[in-house]
Amino acid sequence: MDMWYTEKHSENVGIAMKVSKTLFSGKSEFQQLDIVETLEYGRMMLLDGLVMVTERDEFVYHDMIVHPALFTHPAPKKVLVIGGGDGGTIREIVKHPSVEEAVLCEIDGLVIDKSVELLPSMACEIDGSNPKVKLHVDDGIAYIREHRGEFDVILVDSTDPIGPAVGLFEEDFYRTVFAALKEDGIMVAQSESPFYHPEIQKKMYANLRSVFPIVEMYQAFIPTYPSGLWSFAFASKRHHPVRDFDRERAAKRGFRTRYYNEDLHLGAFMLPTFARENIAEEQPEP
Ligand code: SAM
Q1: Residue 76 in contact with residue 98, Cβ under 8 Å?
Q2: What does the alpha-carbon distance between residue 229 and residue 168 come to, in Å, rounded to a whole number?
Q3: Catalytic residue positions?
Q4: Which residue's C-alpha comes closest to atom 27 of ligand 1?
Q5: Tens of pLDDT, residues 156-210
Q6: Is 34 in the pocket of ligand 1 (CB under 6 A)?
Q7: Mutate to test the pocket of ligand 1, among 114, 158, 232 (most ligand atoms within 8 A of CB)
C-alpha cells in the first residue's frame, strides 16, 4: 500500500508526497511534530501537519532568510533567530566570518532535539558543537523584551501566524524587535505566499511600515511551500537592501551558496505586479 502525505494549501488545492517511513511522531506542549522519510524530498519536518522543511529544498529558504540581510548589513556581529528550531538558519549565519554570536530562541525544545537527532544536515550547528551559537528555549516575544539594542540582525523564522506564532506578525512585536536592534539593525521575517496569502501580507507589511523606515519584500522559489512562490519581509533602520548593497562583497563571500548569489540578491527584490500590489500603501484601482 502506498502512503501519501497531503498538505492542503487552500480548500480545494494541495500538495501530495509519497512517504516511505515515519521517523518520529509526537506532541509537545505547543504542537504536533512529525519527521518522515519521503521518496523524492528526503526527510521532511511537519508541525501541526504543515511542511516546515525538507532536506531537498531547505537550502532555498535558509539561504534567502539569511544572506540578503547579512550582506546588506555592513558588519553583522550579533544575530538572533526567533523560531528556526531545525537549525538551517543558524547554519547559514555562522558561514559569515563577521558573526561573533548567533542566538537561537525557539519556543519548542522538542523541535531542536529531534532536528539534531534526525535532520543533522540542517541542525549541524545547534548540536552544541559551535561556541558561537547560543540556544534559548523560550517565547521569542518575551525574550526580545529583555534584550534592548543588542542585535545587528534579527531573523524571524517562525511558523505561519497560528498558535504561538500569531504574535510574531503583530505591530507590538515589531516594536520590540525595533528596540532589540542596534541603531542600524535589520529584521527579516518570512512573509508567506503572495499568491495564497495577500490578506496576511497586507496586514503584516502595514504593521512593519508603522515601525520601520525601510520595508521591502523579496521572493524565492520554494517548491514545497504553498504555490512555490514564497516571500520575506526586509525591515531596516538604516541600510537599504538594494541601494546600499555591496555586490562585490557578496561576490567575494568565500563560501558556497546553492540558491543565493550577488545577482539574485538584487533580482529577488524585483516583484511581480500582483505581489507588489498586495503590500502597496495605496490599494490599486480594481
Ligand atoms: N521554515 C519554516 C517556515 O517557513 O514555516 C519555519 C521553520 S521553524 C521549524 C518554525 C519554528 O518557529 C517552530 O519550531 C516553532 O516552534 C517556532 N515558533 C513559533 N512561535 C514561536 C515563538 N513565539 N517564539 C519562538 N519560536 C516560535
Answers
A1: yes
A2: 21
A3: 157
A4: 83
A5: 999 888 788 888 888 999 999 999 999 999 999 999 999 999 999 999 999 999 9
A6: no
A7: 158
Q: What is the CATH number of the domain that holds 64?
A: 3.40.50.150
| Pairwise CA distance, residues 266 & 159, whole Å | 26
Q: Smallest Cα–Cα separation from 154: which of 114, 185, 133, 123? A: 185
Tell me, yes or no, whether 204 and 154 share the same domain.
yes
* Residue 33 lies in domain: 3-52
153 lies in the same domain as 25: no
13 and 146 share one domain:
no
Residue bearing the CA closest to ligand 1, atom 17: 83
The number of the ligand 1 atom at minimal distance from the alpha carbon of 163 is 20
Q: Are the CB atoms for 50 and 7 separated by under 8 Å?
A: yes
Residue 131 corresponds to which cell in the numbers above?
561556541
